[in-house]
Amino acid sequence: MKPDSVRPAKPDSPLLVSACLMGIPCRYAGGNCSNDQLQTLAAQGDVLPLCPEVLGGLPTPRPPAEIQGGDGDDVLEGQAGVVNTEGKDVTAEFLAGAQKALRVAHRWDIKEAILKARSPSCGVGQIYDGSFSGRLVEGDGVTAALLKREGIIVKSEEEWEKREAR
Question: How do residues 60-104 score in pLDDT, each as one tens digit?
């Protein structure tokens, strides 16, 4: 299957993609997770990269953060928070980034997003459990949860790669 096969139903609607997957050094440690297949798609002009954590005002690099007390839906409901390894509550920044990402998605009529797996912002289906031990739990990151609530199709890059391999 070709990368353009994941295009949203509306041809003029770009695919929203986590900026780190596009090679932009915005991850917490200052690096990226460049994905060659998504880069190929971006070369066609069909990708809109963004990093919700940076949009929310967090610097790069920054201390790692995880959701504690639930998942992204729980953060949106005010029932969980996002805390970094220094013990600082960064929930407000994660919520602000998610809201800004949603505004961008609405402005560009985004129908589908490919987001970084397991991220507290972008994780889809699994995120780290909040203990900074590497354990995974079911759930979405804050931005992924908000985009899903708005009817945007959200997949991790791993789900997208599996789909492309078929």
Answer: 999 999 999 999 999 999 999 999 999 999 999 999 999 999 999
Using alpha carbons, list the distances in angstroms from residue 30 to 24, 52, 96, 160. Answer: 9, 15, 20, 24
The number of angstroms, rounded, from the C-alpha of 7 to the middle of its chain's C-alpha atoms is: 18
Interacting residues of 52 by C-beta distance below 8 A, sequence separation 6+:
94, 97, 98, 100, 101, 121, 122, 142, 143
The residues, any chain, with a CB within 8 Å of residue 92's CB and separated by 6 or more, are 56
CA 130 to chain centre: 17
Going through the chain in order, the beta strands assigned E by DSSP cover: 15-18, 47-50, 65-68, 81-84, 112-115, 126-128, 136-138, 153-156
Question: What CA–CA distance (Å, rounded) separates 139 from 127?
Answer: 6
At residue 46, the pLDDT reads 85
Q: Is residue 143 within a helix (H) or strand (E), and if so which, with residue range?
A: helix 142-149
Please state, in angstroms and rounded to a whole number, the distance separating the CA atoms of residues 156 and 164.
12
pLDDT at 166: 65
Handedness of CA 156, 51, 49, 107 (dihedral sign): positive
